[in-house]
Amino acid sequence: MTVDAENFFRSVKKHPERFYIIHYSSQSLYDEGVDGFSPRITSIVVMHYSTRQTVSFALHAEAESLGIAKDDVENQYDVIERALLERFYSFLRDRREKYWVHWNMRNLTFGFEHLEHRYRSLCKAEPPSVPIEVRLNLNDILIERFGLDYASPPRMKNLMLLNGELDVRFLDGAKEAEAFIKKEWL
Known about the structure:
- The chain is an alpha/beta fold.
- The protein has a single domain, classed as 2-Layer Sandwich (Nucleotidyltransferase, domain 5), CATH 3.30.420.10.
- Helix content is 37%, strand content 16%.
- It has helices spanning 8-14, 59-65, 77-93, 112-123, 138-146, 155-162, 173-181; strands spanning 19-26, 41-48, 53-58, 99-102, 135-137.
């Protein structure tokens, strides 16, 4: 079964067990303030569509699991992020052929390639990759189906507003970076 904008909603309805929704946050959207290195991954959240079960891989949770005190987190970022990525890729390994619905995760700046790069850099190994054929960009699907004006930019935020209120935990990219600097990992 090939899923595209034309049959996306029908496919999700017919086979919801085949779809995972993914989003992640990072230290910064761009390389500024990271000394020429790619931004750290601070959290990855995956929801299995049919069960609505969510699995979170988060910097603060990994630090706690590793017994690292909050005051020592900054000195242990590599260890903590490596553990986060190892757990995420362990989860992903047996689900690579499922459909991964995302929001503009399409390149090394923000995307599966960024996650893979951070894994390679920290773990010194090749991660199990999600084939590009099963990566579905929901923003592109909505544009193709409803046109560019389905929501005004920034589309994710405005789409949320069109469907109700913003979640109190919602942060745009700039606010995510600011929270990281302030060590507000939650």
